[in-house]
Write a structure and sequence with these properties.
This protein is α+β, with helices and mostly antiparallel strands and 197 residues long. The protein has five helices and eight strands, in the order βαββββαββαβαα. Residues 10-138 form the Pyridoxamine 5'-phosphate oxidase N-terminal domain.
């Protein structure tokens, strides 16, 4: 039923890039810590950089668990499900890191996301993942669901924020600078978006 892959290419890459939603899973090293599972969407916010490297944009929200876990230990799993067409589930297990706005790699990474207007989504980091294990499974129990469109709510909520007000928003949230389990999350103050963004 399941198959392992050495790299992300061909039909596997096409499948991943065609999905409208994916999920990320991370956890702290502490066995009693909170496991985090997050859905990710927004057309154009995910990219395959090469056959072993993926990246996605991390937008404003009221928590920063993924960032905190990656800063602590780097472990992450990404998962895609086929909600249309033949059944399939793909998981990429690997190591990730958050690249923040003041990182010299920022501009180069942002070139992989040409269709995203970052000024309307409160972009706070780019998550870069290096694949260590790539597997698929059948997905026979995943239901059929049809994509209609991206929700406009995230953009309409954060389009009214500038760098200063976004930083103030993050400071007010209990689990942005610090995770639910007390790990360092998003570094604040938030650096301004680079001029090219």
């Amino acid at each position: 039923m399941g198959k392992s892959y050495e790299r992300i290419e061909g039909r596997l890459r096409a499948f991943i890039e065609a999905q409208r939603i994916f999920f990320t899973a991370t956890a702290p090293l502490d066995g009693d810590g909170t496991v985090n599972l997050s859905p990710k969407g927004l057309t154009g916010s995910f990219a395959v950089l090469d056959e072993l490297t993926l990246a996605y944009l991390d937008f404003a929200g009221s928590n920063a668990e993924t960032i905190a876990h990656l800063r602590e230990n780097g472990r992450i799993t990404l998962m895609w499900c086929a909600f249309e067409g033949p059944p399939n589930i793909v998981r990429v297990h690997g190591r990730g890191e958050p690249v923040f706005r003041d990182d010299p790699r920022w501009d180069g990474l942002m070139r992989h996301f040409p269709d995203i207007d970052v000024t309307v989504h409160g972009l706070r980091a780019i998550i870069v993942v290096r694949a260590e294990k790539i597997r698929d499974t059948c997905g026979y129990a995943v239901p059929f669901m049809t994509y209609e469109e991206d929700r406009p709510l995230h953009a309409s909520r954060f389009a009214r924020e500038d760098d200063e007000s976004l930083d103030a928003y993050f400071h007010k949230k209990e689990h942005v600078a610090t995770s639910i389990d007390g790990l360092p999350g998003l570094p604040l103050p938030l650096p301004p978006l680079p001029p090219s963004a």
